[in-house]
Amino acid sequence: MDDVKSIDGMILYIKNIFHDSADLIVEEIEWQKKPAIICYYSVINEASQVNKELELIRNRAEEGLLKWGETAASTVQAFSVPTLIENVATGSVAVVFPFTNLLLKITIPKMPVRSISEPDNEHVIRGQHGGFVESFETNIGILRKHLAIPDLVVKSMRLGSDTNTLVSYVYIESIANKDVVNDLKDKLENIGLSKIWGTGPIEDYLEDSVWSPFPQFLNTERPDRVIANLLEGKIAVFTDSSPTALIAPVNFFSFYESPDDYNARVLVGSFYRILRLISFMAAIFLPAFYIAVVSFHSEIIPAELGKQVKLAVNDIPYRPIVEALILELFIELIRESAIRLPTPIGQTIGIVGGLVIGNAIVDAGFVSNFMVIVVAMTAISSFVVPSWEMNMSIRLIRFPFMLAAALFGFFGMAIGTLVLFIHLLNLSSLKQPYFTPIIPFDPSRFKDVFFRIPYVRMNKQQKTFTHGADKEGGDR
Amino acid sequence: MTFNLSRNQFFLLLFIAQTGTVSLSFQTPFINATGRDAWLVFIGVGIFHYVLLLIYEKNYQYFKPGPIASWLFIGYWFLILVSFISYVDYTLAVWAFPDTPQILVIAIMVGISLYANLSRAETVINLSVILVPLIPLFYILLLFAWPNYVWTNLFPIGTLDRSELIKGLLTSQFTFIGIELFLFFRKHVDQQHKVKGRPLFIYQSIWMVFFFSSVLFTLAYFPLVEIKRIPEPIMYILKTQTVSFVERIDLFFIYLWMMWSIITIAIFAFTSIYVLQLHVKGHRKRNTIILHILLVLFPLLFLSKERVAMIQSTLPYFHLFFIMVVPTIVILMNRRKKK
Lengths: 476, 339
Hints:
Shape of chain B: globular
Structural class of chain A: alpha+beta
Number of strands of chain A: 12
Number of helices of chain B: 16
Distance between the termini of chain A: 67 Å
Mean pLDDT of chain B: 90
Order of helices and strands of chain A: HEEHEHEEHEEHHEHEEHHHHHHHHEEH
Oligomer: heterodimer
Largest sheet of chain B: none
Strand content of chain B: under 5%
Order of helices and strands of chain B: HHHHHHHHHHHHHHHH
Number of strands of chain B: 0
Mean pLDDT of chain A: 87
Largest interface: A-B, 29 and 39 residues
Number of helices of chain A: 16
Strand content of chain A: 5-15%
Low-confidence stretches of chain A: 472-476
Helix content of chain B: over 70%
Helix content of chain A: 40-55%
Low-confidence stretches of chain B: none
């Protein structure tokens, strides 16, 4: 009777630990003629599967096997309340044996996972059309499918005391730089955040300069992109709750490379890579250049064009910077609303915003036709970047340039360019130079910046800012 | 400060330090002093420059300046920096910002140098790379004026007397400013990279082509009497060129030159702090900030055309002292010590 009382008390105690959650199963079962307690979440474990596994282990126990609880899906541990909590919370089934003070852990979680689909924000014409999902097992499985090598190392840890999120980092042992791997490991272990629900909070902790507008980790949901980077000696970080992989160390030019480059013809791939780099210049400098020309240096425009620009600008009641800010703000509003709305309505908003309201703004005399052309070209240029993070950064950077151009004309732009350049030289990704292979100059990789080279090569990340030996990471 | 330079980084650093501000300004005083013989004299100047580089290369291991020599160099570079900043600001005031308070323009330019110098050493060293694609563009646009060059302007030659020659040689020293950086940074060049021989000759050739062609173009474009009235002849040549999509390409290049000059200023400021740190350990950040505050304040005293001219007229004498006399003394003393 005492035993029954203590088992009931223990069940009550366990239920209290988990706040008597509706999806929690805590039941007494019979195990070799003695009571035991089974505990799991019903929504992430299939009851029939649990029964099947229990039956298998029960038979092993009855056969008198010494290691009766050690199977591919189960293990026996010493019982303690924290062990019980950790096992149940992470999706395992726990069977507590109060009389022997043991805990049988059965790991057969069936987490809800969506099916693999192409990432919406990283479309390619040719190449893989599958993307990562919000599951550690599926994502690593995809990688293992494509990289069937024993050197592919996966390390995991649980972070965030409030969320207990599974965070993993993946690298190829023989290629990755050990110092960089250790640096990443240290940074991950030192994340003091209690709530981690995706890659965003982790990225903040891992970045070398959190206040920089430039991303120092490449975000991608594409397995081919992760694989290509792993083969260059980089490391990918995953969380169980996000389909996004964070890749580092990366350089500035990594953000301008697309899987399409390597799936297209050599010349076509090279052409579009150069075009994307030109788009970077256009996205940052074009509105600032226009403002500088109209406000300070109209004499540089050829006479015929200058006449038209003057006619258009004279009718506008504001200074060019105000004109540009109105239109830029308008474009940002269209972009933001189009993202939040369902796809068909989002497209409609784009058309209505871009064509109808855009035309009305010009007709009403708020902005000139030339400014519409400049801002539209700038917006298109910024969307050419294959990385969403870099796209957003560029959109942000052009505002200080516009302001500098409005205050000082070309002088302001020149000063802004120098500040930007110095900032890029100072930046690093996991302590590796960000502006490589231009600075530090690496002739072997330099051509990769502009051209899609017609053969497969595994380049490693530049290791140091200072010129000299030890440029290569890893031992391969 | 510990850093390592590749041969290319070293020569680029030297080239930008030598060409920065003076690339636009040295032609007029030099041609005014030497007349049509300017190009001939500059060939001799080029040979002298190469000989000096060869001597430096042979003796750089012995160039270990003590505190006195280092402070003298720091003072000299400070004078150069003040002169450059005053000149750039004066030129910008003439070409672009007649109404903007000059302290604002100076503070912005010096602020860039401060930002670069508060960064890691590699940042200042590599800053010059931004100019690499722009300098050839500058040169190509100068070649657009080819049909307007009157090559007979280069003749007759041999009309120079001794005093004009000495004056010409002195004014040509502007093109040497920065050569002393060779002695300070040569030891940081990667041991595996050869500097002696062909690489040094290639550097000399680039330096020579750059300055010599600017003298030739100026002589060929303007009659002698006109040059006297034109302080930046290269800019005027660019001003007369039009391409189909841009009416005034000179405006772009005044800002390119300004960027060039700011990078030169950053390099000289970096060198000053570097040499200071050889003797005063620590406080690099504080010293950098103090130097840059002084660089904002001192040029304000030299903002008129006359004062800029005054400071520039004294520079060649200082320069000769610092590229020849001081290094000779330091090298000889260290050679004797080694014996």
